[in-house]
Amino acid sequence: MAEIFQLHKIVYEEPSSIYFKLLSGLTLLFLGFLGISELLGNHLKYSKFWNSSPNSASQFKVSSVVGMFTLYAPASLAGLASFLIFPDGDSRFLMVKLAVTIHFLKRVLEVLFIHKYSGGMMLDSVLLISSSYLFAAAGVIYIQSLTRGFPEPPIDLKYIGFLIFLVGISGNFYHHYLLSRMRGKNEKGYKIPQGGFFGLVVCPHYLFEIIAFVGISFISQTLFTYCCAVGIAVYLTSRSFVTRKWYLSKFENFPKNVKALIPYVF
């Protein structure tokens, strides 16, 4: 039974280059650093924390719509372009391209047609997050393209991965929709979210986003994609923790039993 959990059983054999292993490791470290920074109070400046920096007044600000669109548009274009750049491939490669494209294109459409924003975003955070998403989307697809012709992992996770991805992206969309319905046409303030998993955790949309990225990593089964999924989970877990602290500080009636990310646990 212990052999099932050996890494080589679930990871694609990749070109034997230290570059790809180094890239995976640095990606994980970078996302982990962002997560630790959130816990230390150095937030990426969007959503509730867009003006959290003491010198926010001197920084360049863009509207939330422009900022959020800029976050996801380049990565979604990279996903769409991958179908032209890599028109061939097996079912796994097609599923990877589909999942990456669907994830980021969905976020673009939500920005344009679902979300209702207040406040703004700082340009430095916009550029950092946008370039990170673009790097991740292009990296996942490109590294997957390099595995073509290599032996499949002994344990094939792509179909269960695609199912997990669908659960994640559906749950993420549903809770984004609930958030959008909380705010009226001319309302700007924040309210305690309700409905769905919001009665259990502050950030169910983050929970399902993590699930979606876990699904993508299972479809891909490359070291780089696993590292992306773990790194994103670390960052979103940290962001959920500080978001819960924010709600507790702003709303006296915020229910203490509502956790940050995982129902009944954390």
Describe this structure in words.
The chain is mainly alpha-helical and 266 residues long. The chain contains 7 helices and 2 strands. The protein has helices at 18-39, 64-85, 91-113, 123-146, 158-182, 204-220, 223-250, and strands at 61-63, 120-122. It has a two-stranded antiparallel sheet. The mean pLDDT is 92.
Number of helices: 7
Q: Name the poorly predicted regions.
A: none
Biggest sheet strand order reads: 1-2
Q: Which sequence of SSEs, written as H and E, runs from N to C?
A: HEHHEHHHH
Number of strands: 2
Query: Helix/strand-derived class?
Result: mainly alpha
What level of helicity do the residues show?
55-70%
Mean pLDDT: 92
